Amino acid sequence: MKEFRKMNGRLSLRLxxxxxxxxxxxxxxxxxxxxxxxxxxxxxxxxxYARVMKVAAGAVPAGPPGWGLVEKTKIEELKWVSxxxxxxxxxxxxxxxxxxxAAGRKKAEDATVQELxxxxxxxxxxxxxxxxxxxxxxxxxxxxxxxxxxxxxxQLGEEADEVSRKIEALNxxxxxxxxxxxxxxxxxxTTLGIDVWVNTHITLPARAKALEPPVAGAQALRTEGEFxxxxxxxxxxxxxxxxxxxxxxxxxxxxxxxxxxxxxxPTQIQSIVVVVQAxxxxxxxxxxxxxxAALKGLLAN
Length: 301
Known about the structure:
A hairpin with a 2-residue loop joins strand 7 and strand 8. 49% of the residues lie in helices and 20% in strands. Helix 4 runs antiparallel to helix 5. The strands form 4 sheets. The protein has a 7-stranded antiparallel beta sheet with strand order 2-4-5-13-11-8-7. It has a two-stranded antiparallel ribbon with strand order 1-3. The chain has a two-stranded antiparallel ribbon with strand order 6-12. The chain is an alpha+beta fold.
């Protein structure tokens, strides 16, 4: 009996420690997931989010044949929401998907490599002349040092600096040519991205833009593509604004903000923005394939 009590005591202590660890672990998880005061989503909010994401994913067409899927929103249960929804603000949801034409991108990369190689094989008489001049100066400088001729050493050093600056200028020019080759061969129409933003405030990129004819009866706007040396060619975007509260026209800063009405249930869908980032012709084709009726159905709640 004594041995049983000892064993039972050890088991109780072990069980207490285990339960304490479990409670602490759940507490830490709750703090981590709360993320600045976020509260658990209600059943209604979870249902809203699941419905919105399902409709958004279903409204988006399949990617172009042969293109690979590289990004896609993983639809999971909504667990946490911002406390702002308890202050009358809307509850947003975003769906995102991207495809790429790997074959087209590789073709452009191969063309870049080939042109860079061809460019590097071109004779450069001016560079060769400067390199020989620098070699001559270096040899003479060595002899001047051996003689202890400080005046000549200083003069040759200045000559070497001047030749080196000329070589550096040629190198910079060559680098610019290589950048131009890279830009010229960067692939166009090899990426397609689609976003569906529900209940959102946005400010569009401050670059070339233009109003487009309405899409599915909704206001549409396009930004032009641009080259970014770090990222390559970035296709322009088509923006389609669903809902009746969008600011009119295009401002200097491309501010496009819905006049969301406060005081409504947080799951009341007031605005939807569809963004298609693609080559202009491909973007128009994609816009014709989107299920606009399904998206507008969300606005009816």
